[in-house]
Amino acid sequence: MDKFETDEKPIMKEGALSSSSLVSNGSVNFRGRIADKRTTGGWKASSFVIANELAERLAFFSIAVSLAAYLVLKMNQSLPTAATLMTNWSGSAFLLTIVGAFLADAYLGRFGTIIIFSCLYSIGMVMLTISSTMDSLRPPPCRVRPCVQPNAGQNAFLTGALALIALGTGGIKPCVSSFGADQYDEADEKEVKDKSGFFNWFFLAINMGAVLAVTVMAFIQDRLGYAWGFGIPTGMMIFSIVILATGMPFYRFKKPMGSPFTRFLQVVVASLRNHFRRVKVSHETELYEVKTKESDIHGAKKLFHTAQYRFFDKAAVITDPSPSDINTRNRWKLCTVTQVEEFKSLLRVLPVCATTIGLALSYSQVSTFFLTQAGLTDRNLGPHFTIPIGSVAIFTALDALIIIPIYQKWMVPLLRKFTGHERGLTSLQRIGVGLFLGIFSFVSAALVEKKRVDSFEEQHKMSVFWLFPQFFLIGSAEVFAYVGQLEFFYDEATDGTRSISSALFLSEFGIGSFLSTALVKIIVRSTGGQETGWLRNDLNKSRLDYFYWIVAGIDIVLFFVFLWIATRYKRRQNGSVADESMLELGGNINANEDRR
């Protein structure tokens, strides 16, 4: 929809609303009417979303930091097996974001999807808590090796609980950040600035949840056991649903726009159909678009034609100009320019998505090998207190609590003077900084692990604080890359693909987890197995530092590929695309548009 005029304030009847106070993007309030900026959206709405995310992330991270130890100590699994199951569970949770995103964009809307999948999530948490409290759902304690393995029923109950948690996480993750960003009108300059701040504070909430999980919850679990360690997060997950529901009167809702995957497939089919009919595309070729004010995709703005991926323009070529053919509206034969450009927008972000998977692979090591490494260090703080293993991950989360307020308050205004960019750094620049820091995290991890093993051989236990640099650097990498990706994938998405775009970014973490599992298996098998290879049950006899060097090498290669792609990326701007060099600091954008 076009932006409403704001220069004049017409005299309104009592009870009527000035058009300048209405949103320009067609969002509605909970009564189904066009949303009024004075009573909906902005910080008064997104604050509920941020609070919901904090509670949900506390629940998730409480499970994540304790699950590997629970599998080893209570379910009698070996360390490599537990690490593999942990990464597979985490990976599945992030890959299932595609399911949640599809349902949100096509049928349920983002709010409805969050509520439904949060309920499934809560059921899984309840089941996991029951598993930790009932002896019949666990194998007997391991006193003599080989340990008694869980039976089929015990495995099935635990797997069902973890599957529901993964499905719930996958369903809500691509929707929460997008739903929060939906509370800001892109045609309002003030709200656009606030939206950038929302992404930073949203990520801060994620890390606040992580800090509480690895400190308070890890301490409770260590002192009171897994029943409390899983039970309290279950209560927090249920509370997160209440928080989100409380904000309903203040939200702006965007109606679902039908299946984006169907529209994507229609573009591919129509393009191939015309290609085999030897249809050519040139600057003089007439492309089809509806004559209405809005696009043919209900609730979505029209998009300008762009010169990239011209092959798919064939889907919009009018091969038979007779009105009867056009009016059939058979999108499997003829697509609109907007529908083609929607598909192009997805294709445009795929290379960026592929090159940032390395950071997801790296981050998978935090909850597995990083924490296992920490368990073999001296974690004593004085004679009476020992840092719980799970709490060591606070090194990762604390830097976010420090960096984000500093970045938002002081660094953004400073960087803005040099770059001319409203956010200080472009989203691609932020991602690049994150990838760069991720490399040094694993360089540090490799060097420290070599020193730790040498100290063990000398009968000296290394202090856990030697691990601080690798945790801090991977946390800093996530601060820059994660927020940059949130901004990038939301901004580059079209009206009908916001959840899908967020899911595409989040699925990187799932793919990274599975790649980590594959990499571990390859290294174990190629270096002599779990008894003599680089990665053994006993890390003191392993060569974990070699594994870290391999991960660092992968990160270096992907970082340079990312630089090459980012300097050539053409970003969306007001429905068109423009060149954005990730390394350009002048803030100037060279337009390269082909509008029709």
Description:
- It is a single chain.
- The chain has 596 residues and is mainly α.
- Among the domains are: 23-256, MFS general substrate transporter like domains (Growth Hormone, Chain: A); 260-343, no CATH class.
- It has helices at 43-73, 79-95, 97-133, 152-181, 189-224, 226-246, 260-276, 323-327, 337-355, 357-363, 366-374, 394-419, 427-457, 468-492, 498-526, 529-532, 544-566; strands at 570-573, 576-579.
- Strands 1-2 form a two-stranded antiparallel sheet.
- Helix 3 crosses helix 4 (152-181) and helix 13 (427-457) packs antiparallel against helix 17.
- The chain is globular, with a radius of gyration of 26 Å.
Set down the secondary structure blueprint:
Blueprint: H1 43-73, H2 79-95, H3 97-133, H4 152-181, H5 189-224, H6 226-246, H7 260-276, H8 323-327, H9 337-355, H10 357-363, H11 366-374, H12 394-419, H13 427-457, H14 468-492, H15 498-526, H16 529-532, H17 544-566, E1 570-573, E2 576-579
Antiparallel strand pairs: 1-2
Contiguous low-pLDDT stretches (5 residues minimum) are 1-18, 575-596
* Category by helix and strand content: mainly alpha
Number of strands: 2
Q: Which architecture of the domain at 23-256 would the CATH scheme give at its second level?
A: Up-down Bundle
CATH class of the domain at 23-256: Mainly Alpha
Tell me the distance between the termini. 19 Å
> Helix fraction?
55-70%
Strand arrangement within the widest β-sheet reads 1-2
Main pleated sheet: 2 strands, antiparallel
* Radius of gyration over all CA atoms, rounded: 26 Å
By CATH's scheme, which homologous superfamily of the domain at 23-256 applies? Answer: MFS general substrate transporter like domains
Average pLDDT: 82
Globular, elongated, flat, extended or rod-shaped: what is the shape?
Answer: globular
CATH topology of the domain at 23-256, anyone? Growth Hormone, Chain: A
**What portion of residues belong to β-strands?**
under 5%
Order of helices and strands: HHHHHHHHHHHHHHHHHEE
Quickly count the helices.
17
